[in-house]
């Protein structure tokens, strides 16, 4: 069968072999966790604990009244040491609860355990997902219960699980698919039931044959769930690209997958949903790839939310002498960090360390109109033109040329032979358009 | 451990291609044509080519010094311009003329607009247009080893004499240094295609249009696509990234437009050859073409 894909895109080096065969293992339990109180896209939360409180593992420590938010849970049993400001991996300064770990963990989440989905109706499933604080684990951290809350006037026929893991280096979704396929399928069924979707797909890039085989075995008895093999191409895991590849549907500009009857979730998110329903386990730990040529012993670990990233790096043998850049996430869309002294959050799927030789000093030269960016853009934008508009603050042109459709995948910057930071200019262009829209309102 | 971590915005990995690599690959791609020129026109070809390249590189250097810009002569773009200009010149051209042509190509064709990436026209063609306008006799004298010979196009136009197709294809004919051998040009172009450093839509559209146009108006289409500067122009000048459209549809339009102009000039115009002016005219339309051929973005409702 021919692998499915979207049009355009790029082929970076994948470098998955560093960690793809390293089984997930639990990271050392931290002595202290620093849990930022905003780990989702949406409204801020109110903190539910104060200094000196004793908390149990899985106990809710922050929640909000707004629909678009996801509560946060203690990732160790222990004592609340303080609540203070920290810098999160996104570079935001946020409040965080610091918990000093007790000798032992005692799970106390208040979530009931359900062996089967038959005893739950869609609203109950959505409620469990919400109470468990589950957000998209691919990096965007959008609350999952919101995704599967379908408005009255819309309907969904497919839930697609994103197992593409198209970011180079990262292998967490791959490991979860190899090691926990049944949990993923259970989670997928829960998401399908919650969204009222009759069908499900699991999209996996063809460079992960073990994951494809593992998931195919797991869905053998399910007529309405199918594993779709995708071409290995970046950004195959972007939700619009995934929908285009698997269903040939085009998400309208400014719209959501919902508008074409689809909900997209990450495979690891589905596994977390299964954990919440079957084990009453809220989202207090996740898997992560600690990888790159600047790490002594690359690993796939399961770590408690709020663990210091420096500790995870130490557990993977520490940085090599020539380590030059530390990135949370993958090399295409991840964020370079100034310090290792930051807490891992729900969206932190990787720590990638590049060495000096891999970090080129880019000095942009003038654009030669080669149009490689135009030929690479999966959204069919014209990055070079948009970058010029953004540099000159031409807001009307930016809008007319669809800058808001940019998904910031970075393909344009990747291919540019003049080393122009195109996607950066496009981000600025998007900000200019948004600023103008706010002014108008 | 070093405590100075590098922080930049994403993406953190880049492809290995660079402007320099692209430009030097074009130089490599032009080598078969250079060898063909040396084979057919001997030492004369070498001196014209070296003079034109030296003129281009030197002009680039001087302009960048005067403008206090970074010296970028190593990026190969001036070499490409000098080389392309040389390949459009008659072998008998005086060396000072070739040199002067390069000065104009880089100076007026490229640096006055701000250097690489800014020129609206193909610089080599600007140089050639200048020479054609200023020294029409020198530019149309096709003397090889003391024997004058007309180009196949002017023989066809003025005397109605056709040239053997095989000779036309391999280059055993009168004409400019680099335009005689279609075979050598196609070889070089194939290399660029293999490297992914050139787009194929413009040359296909341009050559295809000339073929169909010549056929439609009752002339020999094979003759027209291999004669004169069409191959050199379509493969290496119309495809100049800086002065051609960035959209796929735009490249088709650009190529077809240039092809139509070639046919019009060759069949009804005063010149036997029209490739140079066709491309220069289409160059002026590029911003307009880009504007009206913007692709529909994914999910966009127009």
Automatic annotation (TrEMBL), chain A:
InterPro entries, per database record: 4Fe4S_Fe-S-bd, 4Fe4S_Fe_S_CS, Ion_transpt_RnfC/RsxC, Nuo51_FMN-bd, Nuo51_FMN-bd_sf, RnfC_N, Soluble_ligand-bd
A single GO cellular-component term on record: plasma membrane
Cellular location(s): Cell membrane
Chain residues that bind [4Fe-4S] cluster 2: 377, 406, 409, 412
Membrane association type: Peripheral membrane protein
One Pfam family this sequence matches: Fer4_10
Cofactors required: [4Fe-4S] cluster
All copies of domain 4Fe-4S ferredoxin-type, residue ranges: 358-387, 397-426
Keyword line: 4Fe-4S, Cell membrane, Electron transport, Iron, Iron-sulfur, Membrane, Metal-binding, Repeat, Translocase, Transport
Binding site for [4Fe-4S] cluster 1: 367, 370, 373, 416
EC number: 7.-.-.-
A GO molecular-function annotation: metal ion binding
Cofactor note: Binds 2 [4Fe-4S] clusters per subunit.
GO biological process terms held by the UniProt record: electron transport chain
Role this protein plays: Part of a membrane-bound complex that couples electron transfer with translocation of ions across the membrane.
Self-association and partners: The complex is composed of six subunits: RnfA, RnfB, RnfC, RnfD, RnfE and RnfG.
Family membership: Belongs to the 4Fe4S bacterial-type ferredoxin family. RnfC subfamily.
Protein name: Ion-translocating oxidoreductase complex subunit C
Originating species: Halanaerobium saccharolyticum
Gene transcribed to yield this protein: rnfC
TrEMBL record, chain B:
Cofactors demanded by this protein: FMN
Chain's role: Part of a membrane-bound complex that couples electron transfer with translocation of ions across the membrane.
Keywords linked to the UniProt accession: Cell membrane, Electron transport, Flavoprotein, FMN, Membrane, Phosphoprotein, Translocase, Transmembrane, Transmembrane helix, Transport
Family: Belongs to the NqrB/RnfD family.
UniProt-annotated location(s): Cell membrane
BP-aspect Gene Ontology terms: electron transport chain; transmembrane transport
InterPro entries for this protein: NqrB/RnfD (IPR004338), RnfD_bac (IPR011303)
Subunit structure: The complex is composed of six subunits: RnfA, RnfB, RnfC, RnfD, RnfE and RnfG.
Main location: membrane
Bilayer disposition of the protein: Multi-pass membrane protein
Gene: rnfD
Keyword Flavoprotein: yes
Stretches that traverse the bilayer: 22-40, 46-64, 71-89, 173-193, 200-217, 223-242, 249-269
Assigned GO CC terms: plasma membrane
Top EC class, one word: translocase
Record carries keyword Repeat: no
Chain positions with FMN phosphoryl threonine modification: 151
Species, as recorded: Halanaerobium saccharolyticum
EC number: 7.-.-.-
One Pfam family hit: NQR2_RnfD_RnfE
Protein's name in the database: Ion-translocating oxidoreductase complex subunit D
